[in-house]
Design brief:
The protein is an alpha/beta fold and 232 residues long. It has a single domain, classed as Rossmann fold (3-Layer(aba) Sandwich). A 6-stranded parallel sheet has the order 2-1-3-4-7-8, sandwiched between helices. Helix 2 packs across helix 3.
């Protein structure tokens, strides 16, 4: 039996794992989906005071409260920033890090660091005007039809304070954990392009691909579950 902790990306919440949790439970594992402060069912907590450190504490608190000692920590998209920070704090309690089409930061980088200057400028302008990042059309995640509508109904604004927040961590400590990057290739999300190159250039990574869009937990849940269950 393994313990899985699932961390969503920007604009999402624990709801996005609804198609992944039951198969993990049915296979005899424990799995916990965390909703980060300010989004999903915790959108009422949205404020300018929500930071990257807030989100790291959200996940670390679940690991501690559930007394997990050998957890597989999965981060989707922006959630890669969060799980890296958690791994820096709680490496002894983790077994494996899974970056699902996710940000893979270097020490001192922020979520914004891997984005193009045009994306950075647009998002900083939005944050300056409203304090948040409005959800995009889920079509950019490769979703259509009922899946697109399902995600669109549930997305909530992303706290602006997390966008340019740098993450300082012990790279050697994090790299000592087994790490897998799952590349969602069809279509490939442009804001993850640098990360795809990075993990192929750095030693120590296991790589997997799913021929689906960015929200694999929605569009290809069984393929994702199969990869998670194959983690040693």
């Amino acid at each position: 039996m393994a313990d899985f902790v699932l961390v969503h990306g920007a604009w999402h919440g624990a709801w996005c794992w609804n198609r992944v949790l039951p198969p993990l439970w049915a296979a005899g594992h424990r799995a916990f989906a965390v909703t980060l402060t300010g989004v999903g069912e915790r959108a009422h907590l949205l404020s300018k005071h929500v930071t990257l450190d807030t989100h790291i504490a959200d996940v670390a608190s679940v690991i501690e409260a559930e007394e997990l000692l050998d957890a597989v920590l999965v981060g989707h998209s922006y959630g890669g920033m969060v799980i890296t920070g958690v791994a820096d704090r709680l490496s002894a309690r983790l077994r494996h890090l899974v970056y699902l089409d996710a940000v893979v930061p270097l020490p001192g980088e922020s979520w914004s660091s891997g984005h193009s200057p045009e994306t950075q400028a647009a998002r900083r302008k939005a944050i300056a005007e409203s304090g948040v990042l409005a959800p995009p059309d889920p079509e950019v995640f490769g979703l259509s039809g009922a899946d697109r509508a399902w995600v669109a109904r549930r997305q909530t604004p992303q706290p602006g304070g997390v966008y340019d927040a740098p993450l300082h961590f012990d790279a050697a400590s994090v790299a000592a954990l087994p790490r897998t990057f799952i590349d969602c290739t069809a279509p490939a999300l442009a804001t993850i392009a640098l990360m795809r190159t990075r993990v192929r250039a750095e030693p120590g990574w296991s790589l997997a691909e799913i021929a689906t869009g960015h929200d694999a937990m929605v569009s290809a849940p069984q393929a994702l579950v199969d990869l998670l269950l194959a983690i040693p």
